[in-house]
Amino acid sequence: MASTRPNNRLAHETSPYLLQHAHQLVDWYPWGPEALDKARQEDKPIFLSIGYSACHWCHVMSRECFDNEELARQMNERFVNIKVDREERPEIDAIYMNALIAMNGQGGWPLNLFLTPEQEPYFGGTYFPPVPGSHQPGFGEVLQQAHDQYRDQKEQIQNRSKGILQKINARHTPGVVQENSAQTLINAAVQLLSEKFDEAYGGFGAGMKFPEPMQYSLLLRHWARSESNDVLMMVDKSLTHMAEGGMYDQLGGGFHRYSTDREWQVPHFEKMLCDSALMARLYLDAFQATQQDIYRTVPEEIFEYVDREMASPEGAFFTSQDADTEGREGIYFTWELKEVLDILGPRHAKVFAKMYGITPAGQFERRNVLRVIQSMEKTAEEEGMPIFEVGHIIKNGKQALLEARNKRSQPHRDEKVLTGWNGLMISALAKGFVVLRKESYLQRAATCADFIWNHLWQDDFLLRVYKAGQARFNGCLEDYAYFLDGLVALYEASFESQWLERAQVLAESMIDRFWDEGGGGFFMTASDHEPLVARLKTPMDDAMPSANAVAALALLRLGRLTGSKLFEEKGRQTVRAFEGDMEQRSAAFTALLSAMDFMESSPVEIVLSGPEDDKEFQKMLETVYRDYRPNQLAVVYQGEETIKWIPWAKGRGPVSNLPTAYVCKEGTCHPPVHTAHALYNLLGRPPEIRLNIFDEDKKIKDMRSQEQANFLNAMSDIFKYSGLGKK
After folding, report:
1. How far apart are CA 392 and CA 401, in angstroms?
2. DSSP readout, 408-432?
3. Longest C-alpha distance within the chain, in Å?
4. All structural domains of the chain
5. Which of 168, 191, 208, 417 is most buried, with most CB under 10 Å away?
6. What gap in Å lies between CA 61 and CA 451, rounded to an integer?
7. SS (H, E, C) 661-718
8. Residue 5: per-residue pLDDT
9. Residues 6+ positions from 607 with CB-CB distance below 8 Å
10. Could you tell me the pLDDT band of residue 7, with boundaries at 50, 70 and 90?
């Protein structure tokens, strides 16, 4: 067993991912001076392996290759072996992922690269099997090739490495741009997204699909301005299929990482805190836009899941849950038909199976991924029972299956706290409070923000990781930007000035440490970060929004709230720094385009004042956040303390001690009003939804399959011979 082996150097780390490799025979080092100095002194190439604890294929390669005694021997003899947790060190991951893509045209995890002792990449790939197969070399061959290249072709690999580094080190500079408006660039991005849109199942493309929340956020912004129902239909179809598909955990809430197929049926089963935060916020936006119940239910269930399974005792949130249990991917989240029959009984199992697509064959290794394929109304009609009875069966069935699932071996949970990802969850919870008015969301967001501030803000700079009582590693731009966004969102939800004060301090530190004086925008690493072979700027979105985009929008909002010219100007300069890139590939910069849309808008400024416990005041507050208006700024007047931080709130106190609302929009400040109805009239109606965008019959027709029909025939035989077929 691995635990009987001697520890390697990773045993002293706190990262759950690194600790998974702490008993291997490979002489692993963490990234740091000891390993890098050894490579230079012994003139050995570096084998760099990057992954994360919830990564399925990282586990597979670890078992197959790094636990193999012969392969471990070769690694130890020929290389200095370094393990990196990409979630701890995203700057290292970004450099070498860019290098791998430059070399091979694609990347992924596990990321396995061979470097010169000067940390320059020359050869590598992602997953390698232990022996050759499926047109892939075995890992032993890869080790031999990397060793031979370094020994026999040093000059060639040095030239190749320098070319790769020059490519990824290329600076983004403003250059000559066409001075396009945000709307011009957004129109171009929307056109590109429309061309990629999957009309049958939503999402973009016809293969595996990531949720890509930034793209839908931009589409909602475009809809709010253009009132295009075609755009809203793209959002609705995609979000509905995601929420009803296998990528969403129908029992426990929360989204898995991505769908392995076009139809959102079978996910890659890991769950990440960042996805939960981004998707909750997106669905809250969709709820504001459409008022559809599904878009309220999903974020509520996400917050329940996160609070139940991802909350740390100190008040922050953990990083991820694994895709694997007992060495098998997805077994915790999937079901055999027999299990469902045993737990629910044949009659209830039939109803449950109709709604959730449960078949004898399953969709994943002969197991079923629960996904909604039929409505309660349709099921009630087919079964000849009242809809409330179907609802009762489904509710009790979900609870019974969840209780049974909780008794299974649990997926490994990565219990480190990441500053940036917690910033995303703070933003989502703050949004949840203002939209759904649940006080617990605001309390959770505030508790988390206090934890980050008290434990990871040290000596005027931000640290990235908290684990086992230790705060470690300098924060990267995403930590500053995402946490800054969370603090601004917390102020806009609570109107407590401490969040604005902390946001200003954090923003000043971010500008001082990360700003690019030459080209504008922000580097990924601070000016005093340890030397690496590249210092990147990352304006494009990937699975998460670009940190430059989040920084820009947070600075623009903070600048307009506080009147700070510095913050607003840095936000503008960040957007402008990448305008040339956006002109070339607009759909790759959706988060920056959202920031640009806010930058060029004339925001609606709202000040509420008066007795806050008055029912009409509360109605006005609910009116402010009822509809989707992404470019509004709202504050509550609380006397001199508010004016100190929000100069434009001056003179906007209550009239005759009544609940009072002041609205400025499109360059005009209107006389104060005293009712929610009058405030709604000032804000203006939201875009009209002119079409029936929720075509249930078409959805059912799209989703039903021949396999389900075969299953129902088989179930009929079961009922026929069991005597339970009669109602």
Report:
1. 14
2. SPPPPEE--EEHHHHHHHHHHHHHH
3. 86
4. 2-168 (3.40.30.10), 184-324+414-600 (1.50.10.10), 333-407 (1.10.10), 604-683 (3.40.30)
5. 417
6. 36
7. EEEEECCEECCCECCHHHHHHHHCCCCCCCCCCCCHHHHHHHHCCHHHHHHHHHHHHH
8. 64
9. 634, 635, 636, 637, 648, 649, 652, 661, 662
10. confident
User: Chain-wide mean pLDDT for the chain?
Assistant: 92
Specify the amino acid at residue 165: L
Answer yes or no: is pLDDT of 721 > 50: no
Query: Could you count the other beta carbons within 10 Å of the beta carbon of residue 639?
Result: 10
Residues 6+ apart with CB under 8 A from 726: none
Nearest-angstrom CA–CA distance, 557 and 625: 17
pLDDT(476) > 90? yes
- Tell me the β-bridge partners of 29: 82
Tokens of 96: 């070498």
Cα gap 407→212, rounded to integer Å: 33
Say what the pTM is.
0.92
Estimate the crossing angle of helix 439-456 against helix 293-309, to 10 degrees. Answer: 40
Three state DSSP letters for 565-602? HHHHHHHHHHHHHCHHHHHHCHHHCHHHHHHHHHHHCC
Task: Please tell me which residue, 283 or 707, carries the higher pLDDT value.
Answer: 283
For position 693, what pLDDT does the model report?
Answer: 47
Identity of the residue numbered 295: Y
pLDDT above 90: residue 593: yes
Q: Strands 80-85 and 46-51, how do they pair? A: parallel
